[in-house]
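User: Could you go from structure to sequence for me? I need the amino acid at each position, not a summary. Structure tokens:
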């Protein structure tokens, strides 16, 4: 893949250039908790977006997308959101630009193997790789957290998705063999070893494409905020659902719209599942952790209502298969991947079984990805 980028860059631009790579991510447990100032437990995976960059003498961003065979060119004199994925590049330039303009325009080539629309955060990987490059090439002096926050602001202002910080953080701070327990309020984090050599993380793609920028995602955020507004009347220390105890929520259930109550209950329970899950991982108790994953999916489906028939079918079917520890829908919802923990000796059998079951039900074969927890975003050393 890196050789593809080098060849394409030389073909289209012929300049000296630098390359950065940033991974997609999985999130073992803790879904939709990030924008509620709660906890998440992501890990970077061994699927990457590669970006090559060389400054040019124009005030323009010229882009080549290898997979799509597409070329784009944008003026940097008047940056604004555009349709499609190039908006992330423009957004990152806009967010990291110092008070004065960047001294050059830039030629960019993008490639990668993070599936789009599968819940592995391809957009965060793109922002992270590009942000790392901008910081390196133009010597901006940004920390990794500042690059992550720029990626989040890009999602907010250029992709119109009010996401939390988890995806960008995971892509930039990933550590091989470790998950990251991130406090999305304080941004403090702890590396949690994921030391299970006999386990494989397998992502089963429902092949149902979803858009996190849909109105449903932002609506969930509004519903959570509506719940906080009611509960704060009884405890002014409550700043988000992260501060809400289940007992308080139940005590004032009658004052909440039923839909708002269900959203709040899921978030409160999901935060506790994550804290319990970290303890189980430290105790090397993967069976208990897996049960929490199944419980999380049940909540995503029935309380937060961000699942879909295909995802529910997959989780139900996976639960009945041999050597499975846990599974749930991963990502924003409405499709995408089911993250599954499977004993490595049964990985190929598992893939064959679940593909056959899904084909029988929906007449299509789900893609399956065996992933490993890998390092975060990094500069790629040029080869001679």
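Assistant: Here is the amino acid at each position, in order:
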């Amino acid at each position: 893949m890196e050789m593809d980028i080098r060849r394409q860059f030389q073909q289209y631009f012929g300049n000296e250039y630098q390359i950065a790579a940033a991974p997609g991510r999985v999130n073992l447990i803790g879904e939709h908790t990030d924008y509620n100032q709660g906890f998440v437990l992501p890990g970077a995976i061994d699927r990457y977006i590669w970006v090559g960059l060389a400054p040019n003498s124009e005030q323009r961003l010229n882009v080549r997308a290898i997979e799509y065979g597409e070329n784009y060119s944008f003026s940097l004199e008047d940056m604004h959101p555009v349709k499609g994925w190039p908006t992330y590049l423009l957004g990152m330039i806009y967010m990291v630009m110092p008070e004065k303009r960047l001294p050059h325009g830039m030629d960019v080539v993008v490639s990668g193997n993070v599936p789009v629309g599968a819940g592995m955060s391809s957009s965060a990987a793109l922002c992270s790789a590009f942000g790392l490059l901008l910081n390196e090439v133009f010597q901006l002096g940004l920390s990794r957290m500042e690059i992550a926050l720029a990626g989040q602001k890009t999602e907010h202002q250029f992709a119109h998705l009010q996401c939390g910080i988890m995806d960008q953080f995971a892509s930039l701070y990933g550590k091989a063999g470790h998950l990251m327990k991130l406090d999305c309020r304080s941004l403090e984090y702890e590396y949690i070893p994921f030391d299970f050599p006999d386990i494989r993380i397998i992502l089963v793609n429902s092949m149902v494409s979803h858009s996190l920028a849909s109105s449903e995602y932002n609506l969930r955020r509004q519903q959570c905020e509506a719940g906080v507004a009611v509960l704060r009347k009884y405890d002014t220390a409550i700043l988000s659902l992260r501060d809400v105890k289940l007992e308080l929520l139940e005590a004032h259930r009658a004052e909440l719209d039923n839909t708002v109550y269900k959203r709040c209950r899921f978030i409160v329970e999901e935060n506790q599942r994550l804290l319990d899950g970290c303890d189980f991982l430290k105790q090397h108790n993967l069976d208990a952790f897996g049960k929490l994953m199944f419980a999380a999916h049940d909540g995503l489906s029935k309380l937060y209502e961000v699942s879909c028939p295909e995802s529910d079918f997959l989780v139900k079917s996976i639960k009945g298969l041999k050597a499975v520890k846990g599974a749930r829908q991963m990502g924003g919802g409405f499709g995408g991947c089911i993250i599954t923990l499977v004993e490595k000796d049964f990985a190929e059998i598992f893939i064959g079984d679940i593909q056959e079951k899904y084909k029988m039900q929906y007449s299509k074969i789900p893609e399956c990805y065996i992933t490993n927890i890998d390092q975060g975003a990094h500069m790629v050393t040029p080869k001679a």
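One structural detail worth keeping in mind: The first strand starts at residue 18 and ends at 27.
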